[in-house]
UniProtKB/TrEMBL annotation:
Organism: Trichonephila clavata
Swiss-Prot/TrEMBL catalytic activity: S-ubiquitinyl-[E2 ubiquitin-conjugating enzyme]-L-cysteine + [acceptor protein]-L-lysine = [E2 ubiquitin-conjugating enzyme]-L-cysteine + N(6)-ubiquitinyl-[acceptor protein]-L-lysine
Similarity field: Belongs to the UPL family. K-HECT subfamily.
Function according to Swiss-Prot or TrEMBL: E3 ubiquitin-protein ligase which accepts ubiquitin from an E2 ubiquitin-conjugating enzyme in the form of a thioester and then directly transfers the ubiquitin to targeted substrates.
Protein name: E3 ubiquitin-protein ligase
Any one GO BP annotation for this protein: protein K63-linked ubiquitination
Pathway(s) the chain acts in: Protein modification; protein ubiquitination
EC number(s) recorded for this UniProt protein: 2.3.2.26
Organism lineage: Eukaryota, Metazoa, Ecdysozoa, Arthropoda, Chelicerata
GO-annotated cellular components: nuclear speck
Name of the gene this protein is made from: Ufd4
Keyword Transferase set for record: yes
Keyword set, alphabetical order: Transferase, Ubl conjugation pathway
Entry GO MF terms: ubiquitin protein ligase activity
Record bears the keyword Transferase: yes
Length: 257
């Protein structure tokens, strides 16, 4: 994240005329990458604070000339902010006309016409006032579980690399050009693997440092109250469920700060 200047990123997000649209798209892709790959949410929010970046993202939806590919990446960036903190919602609502603009640009699809998609209604409202609709793939799909590997050049042992990356004349003078390229590439990669460190290729997840045993307990109580109300839908059980849901929501918001 140190390689990205937030002020420049924000300036590019506010562009949107002619050739500037390409710069806006680049900024959006960069912002999505920062939010998705960041292993420290607090530092990410300090660099790209929602109070300045979310209004800029909302203004893109207010731009009637914004193309679909820009809107798609913008929606993705907004979603990443909301995934990290639900408090970002008020930043979006505070932008006049943002919700209406976002709804107007939504594309509604008929799931039943998609052979590879199925939908179902979740039996637990999960603290909401309605039952969520779950859309899923009917057949398993391959998902990325590892990120693209990269090298820590600042921690490289260049002396070892120079010693082991010994490209001889025999490698390039005999055989076909494809064979020569393969030999040279293998030699360089072998030396790099031995001399240059690589970080873990596991995809990072947004941490939730505020989640504790109390959160787990109130969530468990809420689920118990919901199961009781679902089996015996009496007024008393409904009141008990609403109280448990309110306590759970308040606890989570309080711990999030």
């Amino acid at each position: 994240m140190a390689d990205v200047d937030p002020e420049t990123l924000l300036e590019w997000l506010n562009m949107g005329q002619g050739d500037e649209r390409d710069m806006q798209l680049i900024a959006l892709e960069q912002l999505c990458m920062l939010l998705l790959m960041s292993d420290n949410v607090d530092r990410c929010f300090e660099s790209c604070p929602p109070r300045t970046f979310l209004p800029a993202l909302c203004r893109i939806f207010l731009d009637e000339c914004a193309p679909d590919n820009v809107l798609e990446v913008t929606a993705r960036a907004i979603t990443y902010y909301l995934d990290v903190s639900a408090e970002c919602t008020r930043r979006i609502v505070a932008v006049d006309g943002a919700i209406k603009a976002i709804c107007n640009r939504l594309v509604v699809a008929d799931v039943s016409s998609r052979a590879n998609l199925t939908w179902s209604v979740l039996g637990n409202p999960l603290g909401s006032d309605h039952f969520p609709v779950v859309i899923s793939y009917a057949t398993p799909i391959a998902c990325a579980t590892l990120c693209q590997p990269w090298w820590k050049f600042d921690q490289a042992d260049w002396e070892t690399f120079r010693t082991q990356a010994d490209i001889t004349e025999d490698m390039v003078s005999s055989g076909s050009i494809d064979e020569a390229v393969s030999l040279v590439t293998s030699c360089i990669l072998s030396a790099a693997n031995n001399a240059i460190l690589q970080p873990s290729s596991r995809l990072p997840r947004f941490p939730k440092p505020w989640w504790n045993k109390e959160c787990q307990m109130v969530k468990k109580d809420k689920n118990k109250a919901w199961n009781r109300f679902r089996r015996y839908p009496t007024p008393d059980n409904m009141i008990a469920f609403n109280k448990a849901r309110g306590k759970s929501t308040g606890n989570v918001k309080g711990n999030r700060g």
